[in-house]
Amino acid sequence: MSNLREKYPNVHVEGTTSGTTGAINCSDIADSIVREACWEHEGVHQGTILEGLRQFGGLTNAYAQWYTNSVNWANDEVAAYGAGIRYYKLALDWL
Ligand SMILES: [Zn+2]
Hints:
The structure is a single chain. The protein has one domain (2-94). The chain has four helices and two strands, in the order αββααα. The chain has helices at 2-7, 32-55, 61-67, 70-94; strands at residues 16-17, 24-25. It has a two-stranded antiparallel sheet. α2 (32-55) runs antiparallel to α4 (70-94). The longest helix is centred in the C-terminal third of the chain and has 25 residues, at 70-94. The protein starts with a helix and ends with a helix. The mean pLDDT is 92. The protein binds zinc ion.
């Protein structure tokens, strides 16, 4: 993981989604376009988390194993960044 951090130093997190409740926090972002893209990104994670909680019966060991699985995590990030990118492309058309 440290190699990825060295290779992509500018990739960072704008918001958060609780892994236990699915609650999203993008409120510290001043720019409205970046904040909305954060909501799009974190919304993907929220949907995944809520589905996982439903599928694994809440905060069970099975949920924890699923939630911390790096392949699942990476796939969800790809989907989440895709949602953010789609929003940014729409925003560019409005500007
Ligand atoms: Zn993410």
